[in-house]
Design a protein that fits this description.
Elements (H helix, E strand, L loop, with lengths): L2 H28 L2 H4 L2 H7 L6 H29 L1 H4 L6 H15 L10 H21 L3 H33 L5 H10 L9 H4 L6 H34 L5 H32 L5 H22 L3 H15 L3 H5 L1 H25 L5 H11 L1 H10 L7 H9 L5 H13 L7 H33 L17
Length: 475
């Protein structure tokens, strides 16, 4: 039996165990507590199956299972035609977001449940953690030394200018929000999405320095945005509660501790996996599970110490290669596949949110969304890349392909959880939903033609152009 067959058997065997767990998790998310609490009391005090409460519970169970069945059916048929769809401009996030919207429009009674924010946030975080880890594990250290200065510019100057410009434009467009609320909105929409940018990162037509720089940026800026978001939330609360917030403390906790956790777990886990692999101590069918445990441990450790699990997962993906260089070639498919499953479920749920919010959308939200995807992203990137000698087509390409997606959804849920005791600001929620929706559509539809156009623009560049430095390395 070949390695590929054993790997597939490993995935199939483990999937048989984890699928019921994921379905149970979906049910826990979609069934509100008010329908699941007190079941034992209903059974003992009012055993008749004809009571209204029992019927409500039964109906809610049926609606929940029907909604799950819709998602899984869609996923099954999408898998059947996925290779054909890859040749078109229709991306998976577009398909599942539109499916969520259509589900709400066609069968609104199935989507009448209230979201459990905490559980939805957990699924989104786990999916993003797995995706960030797998993306980082593909980053070649030989390539990284050629792109680190681009990453520093994008994550340093570019990120700060993006948040600052986003705040200024939010204050101009939304006069009803405060200074700190404008900061919250800007921080939520500052990160780019590795899931929506995968077509760019995986395209051999894009110079490896450019696509890997965008990959590292997307992998780290989610975590970099968290301390700013928490700082703005704390300062907004401090204005009413006379508390004090310190940005330095948030940065140290989120970035410093997150990097330390990722380095420690990634280096130790990679070394142990490497030793076990070389000495043939590991059963081949358990090797993939061993790799997937590393980002999950990063998430757990980050939660204990108040660090950024996204920074920890991405750093761990880089560090695990030090001790286990075969991590990308042999063991990453499982984490990526199940991370993608969770992410697609999140885009399906997001589609329901979009459909529910459509009547509330207004012109200021649309204007901010358009500016957020263009000026707020592209101008800081252009300023950050001054002096790099990159072609203007490259700067425009890198500026445009900074999609907003799962990272902004996660940060939006973090904001809702942190401000659960305060009155909700619908402007922030609607602006985030509008921006992410437009990004999923615009960046999804423009990815393939944008790559082709960019390739033609740089075809005449000399081999020693900054875009191609180090491009002889394997992609």
């Amino acid at each position: 039996m070949g390695n590929q067959e054993r790997r597939q058997q490993s995935i199939d065997a483990y999937a048989a165990v984890i699928k019921p767990m994921i379905l149970y998790c979906f049910m826990d998310i979609l069934i509100p507590e008010k329908y699941t609490s007190g079941i034992e009391r209903l059974n003992t005090e009012n055993p008749s199956p004809k009571t209204s409460k029992t019927r409500t519970l039964e109906n809610r169970d049926i609606e929940t299972m029907a909604l799950i069945a819709i998602f899984l059916t869609l996923l099954f048929f999408y898998i059947l035609v996925s290779q054909r769809l890859e040749r078109t401009m229709i991306t998976a996030p577009i398909v599942f977001m539109l499916a969520g919207m259509i589900t709400w429009a066609a069968i609104p009674e199935l989507c009448g449940w209230e979201f459990s924010r905490e559980n939805i946030l957990t699924i989104a975080e786990v999916g993003l953690v797995l995706l960030l880890f797998t993306d980082a594990s593909r980053t070649d250290w030989g390539v990284f030394k050629f792109i680190h200065h681009l990453c520093i510019r994008l994550l340093g100057t570019g990120m700060l200018l993006t948040i600052l410009l986003g705040m200024v434009i939010a204050l101009v467009i939304f006069p009803d929000i405060s200074f700190w609320q404008a900061g919250i909105l800007a921080a939520i929409l500052a990160p780019t999405d590795p899931c929506l940018g995968q077509s760019i990162v995986n395209s051999p037509l894009v110079p490896i320095r450019i696509r890997q720089a965008l990959n590292v940026e997307a992998g780290l800026n989610d975590g970099l945005a968290v301390p700013f978001l928490l700082f703005f939330i704390a300062m907004g609360s401090a204005a009413a509660e006379s508390n004090h917030a310190h940005l330095t403390r948030f940065i140290v906790e989120q970035l410093g501790l997150g990097s330390l956790a990722g380095c420690g777990i990634g280096l130790l886990g990679g070394w142990l996996l490497g030793v076990a692999h070389r000495k043939q101590w590991m059963a081949p069918w358990l090797q993939q599970q061993g790799v997937v445990i590393i980002p999950l441990l990063c998430a757990m450790a980050s939660g204990l110490f108040g660090a950024s699990m996204f920074i920890a997962a991405f750093v761990a993906g880089l560090m695990v290669q030090v001790g286990f260089r075969d991590v990308c070639r042999q063991s990453i498919e499982f984490g990526e596949n199940w991370g993608q499953l969770l992410n697609l479920f999140m885009f399906f749920v997001f589609g329901v949110l979009v459909a529910q919010s459509l009547p509330l959308f207004n012109l200021p939200c649309l204007l901010y969304a358009v500016l957020s995807l263009t000026v707020v992203r592209m101008l800081p990137v252009a300023l950050a890349l001054i002096g790099t000698r990159l072609h203007k087509a490259t700067i425009l390409f890198m500026g445009w392909f900074g999609p907003r997606g799962l990272g902004s959804i996660v940060l939006g849920l973090v904001c809702l959880e942190r401000q659960s005791h305060q009155p909700e600001t619908p402007t922030i929620r609607l602006a985030v939903i509008m921006t992410v929706m437009l990004s999923i559509i615009a960046h999804g539809l423009s990815a393939s033609p944008g790559i082709r156009l960019y390739t033609r623009r740089i075809a005449a560049l000399p081999p020693n152009a900054p875009e191609f430095t180090g491009n002889s390395l394997s992609s």
